[in-house]
Automatic annotation (TrEMBL):
Residues 10-176 form the N-acetyltransferase domain. It comes from the Bacteria. Coiled coil: none annotated. GO terms for molecular function: acyltransferase activity, transferring groups other than amino-acyl groups. The keyword Amino-acid biosynthesis does not apply. It comes from Nonomuraea polychroma. This is RimJ/RimL family protein N-acetyltransferase.
Length: 183
């Protein structure tokens, strides 16, 4: 028996209450947080515990969700992936991904994205995935290009962080492009 949620390096799973500690630690790396979205003021241990408990109890949605990226063998959290921007009428969705700094450059993000796309394309019948990447995030730009995403556009100076404006680069992949590369 093989789980659709297990790849070569990672498994995607639901958030568990005890995951609070890993995610709280990931928030300590300001540069990594900025690369993913935006920097927030520090949160307390109590808040992190409450967040993880609430995520663990959140009602499941088949199309819009957040999953933990965990190591395949040890099941330790290394990051998260979430879907958003669901447009069922067009068959499109967007996703975000974040891997904690100590776990980057180990193939976890690429493996997680392939697992996610396989589910969204072949189980939920979507036809296109989109991802927005900040132009200063060289690692994520390279990752999406290596995975076969096509650069579709750029929103100039649309994100402000670390005292400067940054462009957002739109990447897209169709089900046909995915199938040709990963089926």
């Amino acid at each position: 028996m093989r789980s659709a949620w297990v790849g070569e390096r990672v498994r995607l799973r639901a958030v568990e209450p005890e995951d609070w500690e890993a995610f709280h630690a990931f928030e300590e790396d300001s540069d990594a947080v900025r690369n993913g979205w935006r920097l927030h003021p520090p949160s307390s241990t109590a808040y992190a515990k409450k967040w993880a408990a609430a995520e663990a109890e959140r009602e499941k949605d088949l199309d819009e969700f957040r999953l933990v990226i965990a190591t395949r063998d040890g099941n330790a959290p290394v990051g998260s992936v979430n879907t958003h921007g669901i447009a069922r009428e067009h068959g499109t969705f967007a996703y975000g991904i974040s891997v904690g700094t100590p776990h980057q450059r180990k193939g976890y993000a690429g493996d997680a994205i392939v697992i996610l796309l396989r589910y969204m394309f072949f189980e939920r019948r979507f036809q296109k995935a989109e991802a927005w990447v900040y132009a200063s995030n060289d690692a994520s730009l390279g990752l999406h290009r290596r995975l076969g995403f096509v650069e579709e556009g750029r929103r100039r100076r649309s994100h402000y962080h670390a005292g400067r404006y940054d462009d957002e680069v739109l990447f897209g992949m169709t089900i046909e492009e995915f199938t040709e590369r990963y089926a």
